[in-house]
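Lab notebook, bench 4. The sequencing result for the construct came back, and we need a structural model before the next group meeting so we can plan mutations. Quick request posted to the team channel:

Model the 3D structure of this chain.
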Amino acid sequence: MPQSRSAGLLAIYPHITSRDRLLLQLLDDHQVLTTDQIHRMLFHARRTCQIRLGELAALGLLDRFRFARDGGGSQPWHWTLGHNGHCFQAAAHNRPEPTARTSRQTVQRLSANPHLTHLLTANEFFVRLTAHARHHPEARLDRWWSETLTTKQYRTITADGHGLWSVADTTVGFFLEADIGTEALRSRVVTKLDKYAQLIRRGGPRYPVLFWLGSEQREEHLHRLLRGRPGDVPAATATYHNDPADAVWLPVGATGRVRLTALPSDHGQPVADNPNYDAGVFVL
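Done. Here's the predicted structure in token form:
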């Protein structure tokens, strides 16, 4: 009698470590990570990371793709769930088991996604916070929500991600707007703040909106546009070449840069559509 797919997956279980399970969950939540990003979050030695990723790919838990670089060479490997990885996560979360064809199509669509660079940029922000927390015991990334989950939970906003960042006893929530220079700042980026203002008026959280930008010139341009706007939505900016855990955030209207934990943050009211609360109690 041929072996069922579930029986084949059970045979893989003895090879899956707790770190592997964490990686599978990260890829389930955030779709794609590069070798370097996985290394900084979960491994000490890069070579150990590369070997383990290859082993997980051989088990069908991971899949990967990469593209040629303009001018020669290759981009880094981009890792995502393989078919067995999708099956494992489906079992873990009581979802229907995907077919092999569905798993292949998921990888193909992801690799051809025109927004792939934007997705990796948003993930990189949270990767840096996670890597920082590995080396600073007082720091924690208590929440990392993808664009999809953030939109599902908050409904009216379309942030590129949402997080809760804690250092010692101070916790700040934030919404991420990762800018890769493809949107007009005035017509698209700045007007997003109106939806955040609506969220605050409904009793939702008053978290700073973090604009993460690719250049100092674009950052300066954004500040000029934001300077005259109402201040009901806190906003701050920084650029890619800085560690977001450091004192690199420039609040709108300010002259000095501060750390994330120095930005104003309010979890909002315990209203029905505020996902920060369950039965009136704040939850991570």
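The first strand starts at residue 33 and ends at 34.
Will bring this to the meeting.
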